[in-house]
């Protein structure tokens, strides 16, 4: 049975991929470092075989470095919000999770054969919010016990 992390440490690798049609202008400022942002890092364009950018990728190595990323992405003037897909994979996830716009918010879309398992909330806000683990449920492996919703950390980890 997989063990849930309790009160995550500061170091946590994660990858983010943003896919969005016709969004070069929107994403261009995010390809540069900006100390004013709540999250740290910069996206790298992903080009297809004909040289057109179709996505952007970013890697995080610290949990604090990603705080506020989804809120920032929600605030951008996307030319076609229904085409925006954000793929997030934390180091303990079996696969990428998918976030898409629902109204004006990016929300995680349930992927068949997966479930996000959450650890209980930490004792205080000195600990960073934990995204939980997105695990495949269709592989025959033992899964951790799910934390009841009332006992989870309600702060956004991204």
TrEMBL record:
Domain of life: Bacteria
Protein name (Swiss-Prot/TrEMBL): Uncharacterized protein
Lineage: Bacteria, Bacillati, Actinomycetota, Actinomycetes, Kitasatosporales
